[in-house]
Amino acid sequence: MSLQLLSSLTTTAVGGPAGRYVEARTEAEIIAAVRAAEAAGEDLLIVGGGSNLVVADAGYPGTVLRIASTGIEEHDGGGSVLLTVQAGHPWDGVVAHAVGHGLSGLEALSGIPGSTGATPVQNVGAYGTDVSHTLESVRTWDRAEGAVKTFTNAELDFGYRDSILKRTTTNGSPRYVVLTVTFRLEAGTLGAPVAYAELARALGVGPGERAGAAAVRREVLRLRAGKGMVLDPADRDTFSTGSFFTNPVVPAAVAAALPDDAPNYPAGEGLVKLSAAWLIDRSGFGKGYGLPGSAGEHLAGGRASLSTKHTLAITNRGGATAADILAVARAVRAGVTERFGIDLHNEPLLIDCAL
Question: How many CB atoms lie within 10 A of CB 71?
């Protein structure tokens, strides 16, 4: 039997072989595969779209379960519409479905790679919104109890790129395996109020105003593509996990010590969210850092670099290993700490490897 390389299942295209590989296309197959791995005493790694994983070059010695269940169902939500989606359904397909069927609330999340089941785990977000704004419930398989468990929005305890689903996951192995995700959406062609200034400018509206959901989706896809954040096999800038680092949330006093042009946003009492991309750039790591001929070429021989379009993405330029990706990440993180005294934290899950 040939080995399944994790590099073929992840958007960064790095990662060694799976000890055992299983693909599940239905809820029953997902639960059966989880139980089989547990019965065999094997560690379990869940893979959907592979857009939020960096897997070690040695691979994963346990069972790798790729969730490939698909399907979207609409239900009456009593004045709104409930959209229930299978965990393996490609996320952007869900957004396209919603916009195409006259449902608003997801349009600003267009173009994000990966599967739907991963979106509540990370509380995926972009352009001023995240899935917690529209998520109704998540149906999961609770491995500890051996039973199906449904979480409401409040029970998921969402935070910035965080949830109880993420906090109960260790090395890519979750306690709660997502089966379906349900969203509560508004019927109508107008999108949700635009919360992000760059997107509002692109749409010609003011922050907080509304535009057509289809127009919002079109502009978000255009903006993301311009940053290398829409998967394109012909564009090496898209061979990444998207943003490698989260935007740091720091005490207001720390933010006040930064230069006046440092972007900052309120993040709760006494806290401020900073721009990781700004910190990286101002620490001497520009777009394309690590490419042949650049200051960082020595880190990975030009095989891995910051995107030429966006300093937050660490990209596989061709032939990169997980070690190459992490070498660039370590240099960037150390440089930001040295320059500003602020520690950056990785957004993707690092499986059997670390910064």
Answer: 12
Structure tokens at 279: 């910190």
At what angle are helices 91-100 and 213-226 packed, to 10 degrees? 150
The tens digit of pLDDT for each residue in 159-186 reads: 989 999 999 999 999 999 999 999 999 9
CA angle 167, 171, 177 (to 5 degrees): 60
Of 66, 161, 282, 333, which residue is the catalytic one? Answer: 161
Contact 187, 60 (CB under 8 A): no
Strand 176-187 to 81-86 pairing: antiparallel
3-state secondary structure of 162: strand
What does the alpha-carbon distance between residue 295 and residue 284 come to, in Å, rounded to a whole number? 10
**CATH fold for the domain made of 72-226:** 3.30.465
pTM here is 0.92
User: Where along the chain do its domains lie?
Assistant: 6-67, 72-226, 236-351
Cα separation values, 100 from 31, 85, 86, 95, Å:
32, 16, 18, 8
243 a catalytic residue: yes
Catalytic annotation present for 161? yes
Q: Which CATH class is domain 236-351?
A: alpha beta
Q: Which of 110, 137, 173, 243 is catalytic?
A: 243
Is the pLDDT at 282 greater than 60? The verdict is: yes
Tell whether the torsion through CA atoms of 214, 220, 226 and 230 is positive or negative: negative
For domain 6-67, the question of CATH label 3.30.43.10 is answered with yes
